[in-house]
Every structure is written in C-alpha cells, then in structure tokens.
Design a protein that fits this description.
Helix content is 77%, strand content 1%. The N and C termini lie far apart (128 Å). The chain contains 31 helices and two strands. Among the domains are: 79 residues, Alpha Horseshoe (Serine Threonine Protein Phosphatase 5, Tetratricopeptide repeat); 97 residues, Alpha Horseshoe (Serine Threonine Protein Phosphatase 5, Tetratricopeptide repeat). It is an all-alpha fold. Helix 11 runs antiparallel to helix 12 and helix 23 runs parallel beside helix 26. It holds the Pfam family TPR_16.
Length: 565
C-alpha cells in the first residue's frame, strides 16, 4: 500500500512536470523559438508517449512551417494515444482544409466538439485557429467557433487572442483591437496580444511612432521576446517606404532589428527562411545570396532555398546561376507552392541569358528556343497572378531599348490585360509603339500579314487617349499605324488622328511648334492629312500643304501638291 501511494505521488509529480514542460514548449512557440519547442516536445513524446497534446503541438509546428507530411505523421501518432488524442483530430482536420476537403475537416471538428466536457475550451480555440491558418482560410467560421469558446469561458484569454486574430485577418480592425485588448487585460503576461495591438497601429501607416512606442513597451516587460523585434523591423521598413528622405536610415534600423530577432529566436533553417523573406522585402540581395548559401549548406533538399538563391543571383547579375536555381526550384517544388514571381524570375533569367550583342553592338537573340521560353514564362506569371503585370513595364521597356520590338509588344500586351495595372497608360502606349516599330522593320511580304497586330496598336492608342485626351504622341502614332493599315477606313482614321495631333500641338504655341522634332512631325501630319483631304476637301488640303511649306520650304511634295490643287 505504501509502495502504491509512493508510485501515485510519483506519477502526479511526473504529470505536473510534463504540464510545465508543455507550457515551456508553448512559450517557445509563441516566442517563435521553434527549434527549442521541437526539442522540448520530442523529449516529452519520448518520456510520456501517451500524452496526445504533445504530438499535436509538434505536428502544429511542422504544419506552420509548411511541412504537412511531417505534421500528418505526428497527428496520426497522437490520435492513437490514450490522453487528449482529440487535439490530433483537430490537426488532421486542418490538413483536410489545406487539401480542399472542408467537409472532412468539418466532420472531424464536429466529432471533437461533440465529446468536449463542460470546461473544455482549448480544443475550440484550436479549431478556430485551424480555420484562421488554413491555406484557404474561413474567418467567419473561425469567429463562430471562437465565440463558442468565449461563451464557455469568458475569462480565457487565448480565446480572445485568436478571436482578435480572426477579425484582424477578416479586415475588421475595430473588433480585432477590442479582442486583443481584452486578451491582454485578462492575461497581462500574454505578450502576443500586446504585440498585435501594436501591429494594428503599425498598419495604419500613419502611426509609426505610436506603433514603435507600443513595441518598446513590450521590450520593457520582456527584452528577450523575439517577435517584437521582427515587428519593429517591419515598422521601420514601412516607415522608410513612406518617408524617402529617411529610407536608408530606417532600412538599416529595420535590418538591425531583424538580426536581433534572429538572435533571440534561433538560427534554424526556418528562422533563416524568415530572415531571407525580410532581406527580399528590403532588397538586400547581397545578404540574401549569402543567406541562401548558408541554408544550402544546412539543407540540400528543401526547394524553397533555391527560390532565394535564384532571386538573389538574378538581382546580383549572376543570370546563369539564377536560371539554374529557378529551373531546379520549379522542378522540385509542389506546384501549389510555385508563385507568379517564380515564373517571372525564370523568364527574366532566360531573357538575360538568351540575348547578346553582335559585332556592331546591336542586341541579338542568341538562343531562340530559350528566348521563346522566357516569353512563355512571363505569360505564365501573369496567368498565375494578374497583379504581377504591374512590374512588366520595366521588362517591356528594356526589350524595347534593345530594339526587340516584337517580344516587347508581347510583354506590353500581357500587361494591358490587367485593367487595374498602375502602368496601364504607359503600357498601352508602349504596346502600340512596339507594334509600330516591329512592323516598319518587317519585310514587305511580312507587312502584308501584320494587319491584326496593327489593329491591336490602334486599340491600345484609343485606351491611351481615353486616359489622356491630349496625349499628342498617341495621335501621331495612331495616324502612323492607320497609314500602314492601307485601307480606305484606316486612311480616314489616319487623317482624323493627324488633325488632332495638329490641334493639340498648335494649341501649345510656338514654344512647342518651334522644337525641331515637333516641327518635323507637323510637316508629316500636314503632308499626309493633306494627301487624304486632296480627294475629299481640297480647301483643307491646300491649307495643310501651305502650312507644311511654311515650316519646311524644301518640302517638294507639298509644293507639288499645291500646284496640282
């Protein structure tokens, strides 16, 4: 009997120790010390294999780090143990959500909820979290579940914390702030709630000093709480973006705070990846390339490292290395994880390695197959995320400057398919510009087959004029494009476009018309429009030819036409 009592006491103490260690693991997770948390949890699983919550917490870390297969292993093991196995059912439900099987996830969550005891609240919080952090989140369902948790226990701070997170991600800042504040009041040691209050302040973009004050307040409570330094880094980065005069100073501060964050979390592969994300954000490609090399030494399998290596190598001018890394990344990565920017960098690396110079210094395509592949990859980027077309202007203009007008037209055409493209005015003009110069450089035989492209240029210029009715160059090129279409309707549109060019330019006075290039264009307009009006409106034709001669007394064409008239 004495032995039994002693054994019972030992088990009780062991259970308390396990709970304390589990809480240490949770603290490490909250502090984003994931490697430390994994070590604690693996030790707990080894010493207390019947405690399901430890398997769940470990699986949840792997899931948050985008290792669903590892997460599934621990969830399935934890589901089979004696105590608190239901947490792992929740984890498996989140995996169902990530795979698009919401019905299977709901069945698992319902099964867990059905068996909950009166005071069981934490399970509801984790169900709510599953909806928040799923690949395709459902914030409304998360809010509904977390409100159940609050109804069960109105003093459970974690329920308010994640209710705030759900509202925050659902763009309801007022309710988010209210719930984060409640969580912080219920548990002043819950630094994550205080942190999120600062994040909301930071994201107003007009309250950076107030956000920094809030984060400094957290440091005063716990100077070793790593996530606050990451938020300070982001705050200074964003502040630098809105205050150009301070951008360099604030970017340096941002990178310094991120290094502090790294030192207080860990230098594991996943922490280095978060660091790489920030280096990418701040455009520190030299440091990013160095970080990618360190990560490759740690893990030669993870394809995400290749993404960082590819981006950095391209921005640092090492185009062959970028092409190799990005090709390997897309080959190895889960197709769901390949984003538009990956295809864009692949296309850019192919462009850079398939265009060279001839003996005269002209740009030439040195590898046609690879060049065509580059254009296809840039198209794929736009198909994956149309918003990336905001960045096509620079790509198209570079091709245009290399006199690769046809490929430039392709890039600009893709860009103009996005009506929300912030460069729509310039991209539409450059589309027409590129098509026109591609056309005039074609052989006579190919010009006859190019009417469809010229018609696209005409439509693009209509968009330019819709956005800016007095864009004189748009009228000039609209006239030139229609002249090359060689049809009666096109000649009529040509004449009207020249009329408008003349109207807009002459309205600007002699300060504009006296410019040599403008005077030359006016002569072109008077001559070509005059040729059209010579058939339909002889008085207008004579007026135009007379004005052309006034600008250029050596205009023999206009002189001859005046004599004919």
């Amino acid at each position: 009997m004495k032995k039994f009592k002693f054994l019972g006491l030992s088990l009780l103490l062991f259970g308390m120790a396990n709970a304390q260690d589990a809480n240490e693991a949770k603290k490490a997770i909250d502090a984003e010390q994931f490697q430390k948390a994994k070590t604690i949890l693996k030790s707990l699983i080894s010493s207390t294999p019947d405690e399901g919550r430890n398997y769940f917490l470990l699986g949840d870390i792997y899931l948050s780090q985008s290792y669903p297969d590892s997460a599934a292993i621990y969830f399935n093991k934890g589901k089979a143990v004696k105590n608190n196995a239901e947490y792992n059912t929740i984890g498996l439900g989140e995996l169902d959500l990530d795979s698009g099987n919401a019905a299977a996830a709901q069945a698992k969550f319902d099964a867990v909820e059905k068996d909950l005891k009166k005071k069981d609240v934490e399970q509801l919080v984790y169900i709510g979290r599953a909806y928040i952090y799923a690949d395709t989140p459902d914030y409304k369902k998360a809010i509904a579940v977390l409100n159940k948790a609050v109804a069960k226990d109105a003093k459970y701070a974690q329920a308010y914390l994640y209710l705030g997170e759900a509202y925050y991600r659902d763009r309801d800042q007022n309710n988010a702030y209210k719930n984060f504040r409640t969580a912080s009041e219920l548990d002043p040691s819950l630094l994550r709630a205080k942190l999120q209050l600062g994040v909301i302040t930071k994201n107003t973009r007009a309250a950076f000093p107030e956000a920094i004050k809030a984060f400094d307040g957290i440091i005063a409570v716990n100077p070793n709480y790593g996530p606050v330094y990451r938020e300070l880094a982001e705050t200074y980065y964003l502040w630098g973006n809105t205050d150009g005069a301070k951008k360099t100073e604030y970017n340096a501060k941002a990178l310094g705070y991120y290094e502090k964050y790294m030192g207080l979390t860990d230098y594991s592969l996943d922490s280095r990846m978060r660091h790489a994300d920030f280096l990418l954000l701040t455009g520190d490609y030299k440091s990013l390339e160095a970080e990618a090399q360190k990560m490759q030494q740690m893990d030669k399998v993870n394809p995400r490292i290749l993404r960082y290596a590819a981006y950095a190598a391209y921005e640092n001018g090492n185009y062959p290395a970028s092409l190799t890394a990005m090709t390997e990344f897309i080959t190895k990565a889960d197709p769901k994880r390949v984003i538009a920017r990956d295809y864009l960098y692949l296309g850019l690396a192919k462009l850079a390695t398939s265009v060279g110079k001839d003996a005269a210094g002209n740009s030439v395509i040195t590898d046609k197959t690879q060049f065509d592949g580059a254009i296809a990859d840039i198209k794929k980027a736009a198909e994956t995320d149309i918003n990336i077309t905001n960045e096509f202007n620079e790509i198209g203009k570079k091709l245009f400057s290399q006199k690769l007008y046809g490929p430039a037209a392709v890039v600009f055409e893709i860009a103009t398919t996005n009506p929300a493209n912030r460069n729509l005015f310039y991209d539409s003009f450059y589309l027409a510009y590129s098509i026109y110069y591609d056309h005039v450089n074609k052989s006579d035989a190919d010009k006859k087959l190019n009417a469809e492209q010229l018609a696209k240029a005409d439509v693009a210029l209509d968009k330019v004029l819709e956005l800016s009715p007095d864009a004189q160059d748009a009228y000039l090129f609209k006239a030139r494009v229609n002249k090359n279409l060689n049809s009666n309707d096109a000649y009529a549109k040509m004449a009207v476009a020249y009329d408008n060019y003349i109207r807009v330019v002459t309205a600007l006075g002699t300060a504009e018309t006296s410019k040599p290039a403008v005077a030359k264009n006016l002569v072109e307009a008077y001559d070509n429009a005059g040729a059209y009006y010579a058939v339909t409106d002889k008085a207008k034709a004579k007026d135009y030819f007379t004005k052309a001669i006034a600008l250029d007394p050596n205009d023999t064409y206009a002189k001859g036409e005046v004599k004919k008239l």
